[in-house]
Amino acid sequence: MRGIVVDARGLNAFDALDTKALPGMHFMAGRAVLFCFGWDSKWGTDEYRRYPHLSSSCLQVLLSSGAKLIGVDTPNVDDASNLKRPAHTELLGRGVLILENLASLAELVGHEFVLFAVPLSVKDAASMPVRAFAEVFE
Known about the structure:
138 residues, six-stranded mixed β-sheet, two-stranded parallel ribbon, alpha/beta, Glucose Oxidase, domain 1
Protein backbone atom coordinates (compact mmCIF):
# COMPACT_ATOMS: atom_id res chain seq x y z
CA MET A 1 0.00 0.00 0.00
CA ARG A 2 1.25 3.51 -0.74
CA GLY A 3 2.43 5.34 2.33
CA ILE A 4 3.53 8.62 3.80
CA VAL A 5 5.61 9.41 6.87
CA VAL A 6 4.71 12.20 9.26
CA ASP A 7 7.88 13.63 10.80
CA ALA A 8 6.92 13.84 14.48
CA ARG A 9 10.44 13.98 15.91
CA GLY A 10 11.01 16.39 18.75
CA LEU A 11 8.22 15.22 21.04
CA ASN A 12 9.02 14.00 24.53
CA ALA A 13 7.85 10.94 26.42
CA PHE A 14 4.09 11.06 27.16
CA ASP A 15 3.50 13.96 24.71
CA ALA A 16 0.45 13.70 22.45
CA LEU A 17 0.93 14.50 18.76
CA ASP A 18 -1.25 17.40 17.70
CA THR A 19 -3.14 17.61 14.40
CA LYS A 20 -0.87 20.45 13.22
CA ALA A 21 1.72 17.83 12.30
CA LEU A 22 -0.63 16.02 9.92
CA PRO A 23 -0.59 16.56 6.16
CA GLY A 24 -3.79 17.42 4.29
CA MET A 25 -6.50 14.79 4.48
CA HIS A 26 -6.24 14.02 0.77
CA PHE A 27 -2.61 12.93 1.29
CA MET A 28 -3.72 10.29 3.83
CA ALA A 29 -6.76 8.84 2.05
CA GLY A 30 -6.29 5.15 1.29
CA ARG A 31 -2.68 5.16 2.51
CA ALA A 32 -0.46 3.87 5.25
CA VAL A 33 0.31 6.83 7.51
CA LEU A 34 3.49 6.22 9.49
CA PHE A 35 4.68 8.41 12.37
CA CYS A 36 8.40 8.95 12.84
CA PHE A 37 8.88 9.99 16.47
CA GLY A 38 12.54 8.96 16.30
CA TRP A 39 11.83 6.51 19.09
CA ASP A 40 13.52 3.55 17.38
CA SER A 41 16.83 5.07 18.52
CA LYS A 42 15.77 4.30 22.10
CA TRP A 43 15.13 0.58 21.40
CA GLY A 44 16.57 -1.65 24.13
CA THR A 45 16.55 1.10 26.78
CA ASP A 46 14.13 1.84 29.61
CA GLU A 47 13.38 5.15 27.89
CA TYR A 48 11.75 3.28 24.98
CA ARG A 49 8.83 2.31 27.24
CA ARG A 50 7.96 6.00 27.87
CA TYR A 51 6.88 7.36 24.51
CA PRO A 52 4.78 9.97 22.69
CA HIS A 53 1.42 8.96 21.23
CA LEU A 54 -1.38 10.16 18.96
CA SER A 55 -3.81 12.68 20.47
CA SER A 56 -7.53 11.98 20.29
CA SER A 57 -7.96 14.88 17.83
CA CYS A 58 -5.17 13.43 15.65
CA LEU A 59 -6.89 10.07 15.76
CA GLN A 60 -10.19 11.61 14.60
CA VAL A 61 -8.50 13.33 11.64
CA LEU A 62 -6.83 10.06 10.64
CA LEU A 63 -10.17 8.24 10.75
CA SER A 64 -11.92 11.01 8.79
CA SER A 65 -9.17 11.05 6.17
CA GLY A 66 -9.67 7.44 5.14
CA ALA A 67 -6.18 6.26 6.16
CA LYS A 68 -5.98 2.46 5.87
CA LEU A 69 -3.04 1.73 8.19
CA ILE A 70 -1.33 3.63 11.01
CA GLY A 71 2.24 2.86 12.01
CA VAL A 72 4.54 4.18 14.74
CA ASP A 73 8.14 3.71 15.81
CA THR A 74 7.03 3.49 19.45
CA PRO A 75 5.82 0.44 21.39
CA ASN A 76 2.18 1.54 21.25
CA VAL A 77 -0.06 3.87 19.25
CA ASP A 78 -2.07 4.58 22.44
CA ASP A 79 -1.14 6.47 25.58
CA ALA A 80 -0.12 3.68 27.97
CA SER A 81 -1.85 5.43 30.88
CA ASN A 82 -5.25 5.21 29.15
CA LEU A 83 -6.43 1.66 29.74
CA LYS A 84 -9.40 2.16 27.37
CA ARG A 85 -6.91 2.07 24.44
CA PRO A 86 -8.97 4.46 22.28
CA ALA A 87 -6.64 4.35 19.25
CA HIS A 88 -6.71 0.55 19.13
CA THR A 89 -10.46 0.44 19.72
CA GLU A 90 -11.38 3.09 17.15
CA LEU A 91 -8.84 2.22 14.45
CA LEU A 92 -9.32 -1.53 14.54
CA GLY A 93 -13.09 -1.08 14.94
CA ARG A 94 -13.11 0.70 11.57
CA GLY A 95 -10.81 -1.76 9.86
CA VAL A 96 -7.68 0.43 10.06
CA LEU A 97 -4.61 -1.71 10.72
CA ILE A 98 -1.91 -0.76 13.23
CA LEU A 99 1.85 -1.35 13.08
CA GLU A 100 3.99 -0.65 16.14
CA ASN A 101 7.72 -0.86 16.93
CA LEU A 102 8.74 0.15 13.41
CA ALA A 103 12.33 1.18 12.71
CA SER A 104 14.18 3.49 10.31
CA LEU A 105 11.15 5.62 9.44
CA ALA A 106 13.39 8.70 9.25
CA GLU A 107 14.82 7.25 6.04
CA LEU A 108 11.35 7.49 4.45
CA VAL A 109 10.57 11.10 5.39
CA GLY A 110 9.92 13.09 2.21
CA HIS A 111 9.87 10.04 -0.06
CA GLU A 112 7.06 8.30 -1.92
CA PHE A 113 6.96 4.60 -1.17
CA VAL A 114 4.95 1.42 -1.03
CA LEU A 115 4.78 -0.26 2.36
CA PHE A 116 4.77 -4.02 2.73
CA ALA A 117 3.91 -5.66 6.07
CA VAL A 118 4.12 -9.42 5.70
CA PRO A 119 2.57 -11.29 8.67
CA LEU A 120 3.12 -14.81 9.89
CA SER A 121 0.40 -17.33 9.14
CA VAL A 122 -1.30 -17.48 12.55
CA LYS A 123 -4.87 -18.34 13.55
CA ASP A 124 -6.86 -16.61 16.30
CA ALA A 125 -4.12 -14.15 17.28
CA ALA A 126 -4.68 -10.66 18.64
CA SER A 127 -1.28 -9.45 17.45
CA MET A 128 1.79 -10.80 15.71
CA PRO A 129 5.13 -9.74 14.31
CA VAL A 130 5.40 -8.72 10.68
CA ARG A 131 8.29 -8.17 8.32
CA ALA A 132 7.78 -4.53 7.38
CA PHE A 133 9.70 -2.93 4.53
CA ALA A 134 9.23 -0.20 1.94
CA GLU A 135 9.97 0.20 -1.74
CA VAL A 136 10.95 3.82 -2.31
CA PHE A 137 10.18 5.58 -5.61
CA GLU A 138 13.10 7.70 -6.79
